Amino acid sequence: MSNLAERTVATEPIFDGKVIKVRVDEVVLPNGEMSKREIVNHPGAVAIIAITDEGKIVLVEQYRKALEKEIVEIPAGKLEPGEKPEVTAVRELEEETGYVCEKMEFVTSFYTSPGFADEILYVYKATRLKRKEDKAALDEDEFVELMEVSLEEAISLMKSQRIHDAKTMFAVQYLQLQK
């Protein structure tokens, strides 16, 4: 077995924000050479594949400043300190869509960008949805439009790149495999 580990010899904090922290690590490479690594620390997040009793996929359309455009996504949100991923999934589903679910099932987890970030995304499937009478309780800086689409419509949204993020593309492909 080869040793590919990099040993950190110095760390410089660069930014400590509301959602992320950024640092630069100076490392010793396996060949003994020195290099720098820019690292983004993220608390982790959840994404919810929510399916209505009619078999529709619940999506949200929102403007993403980093992309300078609107995209269509599955509901998602970041973990709060000390919060278990399943609790976050239940909370985010209700906040973003106004739905509560009777069944929340863990699907998988994966690192979103392991080349520079430690963010892990926990994916859940929510079924037996019930719409709350209140509207979605969005964060004060969050504006979304709710969509409910068939799998075929979701595939079309993916082909047209209105669905253009990894978590939602994963969700659509996951549902295709479940057929």
UniProtKB/TrEMBL annotation:
Entry GO terms, CC? cytosol
Pfam name, any one: NUDIX
User: Which cofactors, if any, are listed as required?
Assistant: Mg(2+)
GO MF entries: pyrophosphatase activity
Q: Where are the transmembrane segments?
A: none
Q: Which controlled-vocabulary keywords does the entry list?
A: Hydrolase
One example of a Gene Ontology biological process annotation: ribose phosphate metabolic process
InterPro entries linked: Nudix_hydrolase, NUDIX_hydrolase-like_dom_sf, NUDIX_hydrolase_CS, NUDIX_hydrolase_dom
Q: Where is the Nudix hydrolase domain?
A: 40-171
In which family does this protein belong, per the annotation?
A: Belongs to the Nudix hydrolase family.
Q: What is the designated name of this protein?
A: NUDIX hydrolase
